[in-house]
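for the record, two folds in this file. i put them one after another cuz i was lazy. first one right below, seq on top, structure tokens after. the second one comes after a little note so u can tell where it starts
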Amino acid sequence: MELSSIKRVYLVGIGGIGMSGLARYFHHLGCVVCGYDKTATDLTGDLHNEGIRIIFEDRTDWIPYSFQQPDEGTLIIYTPAIPKDSAILNFFRDNNFGLFKRSQVLGIISQGMFTVAVAGTHGKTTTSTMVAHILKDSGKDCSAFLGGLSTNYHSNVLYGKNNIVVVEADEYDRSFLTLHPDVAIVTSMDADHLDIYGDHAHLTESFQLFASQIKPGGTLIHKKGLDLNAGFTYAVEAEADATASNIKIENGDFYFDFNNSNTSIPDIRMGIAGTHNIENAVAAIEACLILEVPAAAIKSALGSFKGVHRRFEYVIKNDRQIFIDDYAHHPEELKAAIRSVKKLYPGKKLTTIFQPHLFTRTRDFADGFAAALDLSDELIILDIYPARELPIEGVNAGMILERMQLQNKRLVSKQEVLNVIRDEKPELLLTVGAGDIDTLVQPLKQILQDV
């Protein structure tokens, strides 16, 4: 497929964070862009306001006339999250349109470009957004396809005027195997997506395949301790090829020193909080040094980096109340988020609201979730967000509660949680999860601001 020949693009599942980035990219190129999703969100509203037509019913008679016949100027992109019985998906399939997954299109776009690909079961969105911001802020420039909305740029896609592209490489459905990067970062390889991979060994094998696809002369950067054969390692307060040390918190800001064999950058102030984000920053710094960004420009850019929507994002921050929202949906992510909050605010009682994501993930990691959530002072847990899955008998949020040591815990509905917070008005609140818990953020913010 030649990108230059594409005139019309239809995205089945346009509302996803990765799919919406492609919609924006092709719209930016001047293509006619349309799509379908089952649910209207703030993101689909933004796309509509940018001139992209979206429907919310799975009806083939609502597909525009210009997409009725396949031709070389028409591109159909779909997400694996779309049900196989989708009428629109099957219309395109039955009428011999060429169907491409998002990951395949990213692979085509990045062909011939200097590609920085960031993979990992967690940390990849923040790290890839950091790399893109450093390149933009320093004047080096890049294009970028991100798995979240950058707070600095209010978008999940960035347009550059050079040959560098930063891509978030998603391991779900082995999507990242469509990429052949010049620089690859692997942030983590914890067991996840076992509904796809079956076990941790097969997940690890997939990451090893991804690492093997780096172009000749390219560089692999990975967290120390991962089961990867070679590469440039990084770590926080431990020995590695690139390290962060002398970590301290001053006035709510994190500072650290960066060192590798060639470069030292002292006293870097982070624009975002969390020890786990210092780890992400070390990987991002190393990638940008390979791209010959000056150390002083890297230091400045990290200070102005505002993070990613729903990645340790402050909703309220004042003397009376702190409210942080995070996308964490894996036990290791939860531990990182909760520990960072406790480190920042050691004198405050932490109330955590958690929405489990997927029945399979809850089943596979119930013990890990319990151990991570036990780090809170109070837990409010919501029902499982099913996403693409059907219920599994015996699998529910109670599985996590019954494994926890914490006494102050309860299961409530999404509506009830608003009443609980209205009554208790916690001084330190953390909402975590990858489902639709984000729809509670603004109502909770309003309740807390009415104190």
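(here's the note) second protein begins now
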Amino acid sequence: MFLRQLEPRTARTTAEVVKFALWPLAIMTVLHRVLVKAVNGARTDDFTPVYNAALEFLNRRPVYTANFNWVDPHYLYPPSGTLLMAPIAIIDPERSRWLFILGNAVAVIIAGYLLLKMFGLALDSVAAPILLLGMFASETVTNTLVYTNINGVVLLGEIAFLYLLLKRRDAWAGVAIGLTFAVKPILAPLLLLPLVTKQWKVFVTAFGIPLILTAVAWPLAVDPMEFVHHTLPYLMESRDYFNSAIVGNGAYYGLPGWLVLILRAAFGVVVLVSLWLLYRYYREDRLFFFCTTSGVLLCGSFLLGSLGQMYYSMMLLPLLMTVVLRNSVMRNWPAWLAVYGFMSLDSWLSGRFPATGRAAEYMKTTLGWSLLLLVICAVLVVRYLTAKREGRLDQGIDPVFDERERETVPVAS
């Protein structure tokens, strides 16, 4: 009887075909990324500076001593983040790194599960293996694991924040995002969501958690003021290496300051127009509004801010997941061309065409983020103009769908 359970089944429906094909691919990709690529590591090593800082913190020695004249990864977390990271230095560096990799991989998987729940999709739907394979085949998850940084846990904090916000468990939503603030403020733009929906309890815990952790960490650290005087000024600067933001690529390619300013201003307008249309016409559609607006806010901050790195794109997963919604702004090919730019693991460096290949490699993330923002804005503006022309703005700007249409992404088989 046991052996019969292991007998391969023949798929009877299209959904079963997709699931039978993708689950083995997804699971083996996860194992490969975690056990091979991540354990092997790479020249870029985000973990060692964090481990060393945690070790120094536990031994009551200075933490903020990085030489920012070097381009190697630096330790940049505030004292509250140092406090949270300190336990990783209790064991030896190698095993600690392996546990850190495993923790981030598990965090990404849990985040994916919460995403499925947010969109009403079950684990036995075709969306589950597609999402798992897409996440772990991407550059953003792969290099988060290979470089061994904290972004997988930050992603979990983001998805938990959105999930709890949708459930109106505001204080817990604040806890989820507040813990990420204690380490890095990358998700700060998302506080616009509870602000416009008047979910005020979020702010109590979102600010309270990092403040409490800072109050605990400050007297335990030997040099907390060095974070303010030494590290914080560096964080405020725009660097010309490993920086896909407009200002970073502008500096790398030597663009004049006025042109960089014009580009940032132009895309700032694109972001503002998108945000206004989303707020004006979609704020009652909470799932679509939260996930789409979060993508616009974060993508805009990556592109327009002082530092944008390709693996930050992991935080755009809620936006990408809206493709299962009928009114999604992601249901067009230019949007997914943009996704290729900032999610693909492909390298465009070319031995035959070195200059062109290097430009394509260094610019693909910037172009991907830029195209995504343009596509979202264009879709929303066209919807607005169409609805205005047809005299139905009071009913919203969604396209008029044929009621006979059926979703192409099944919840379950």
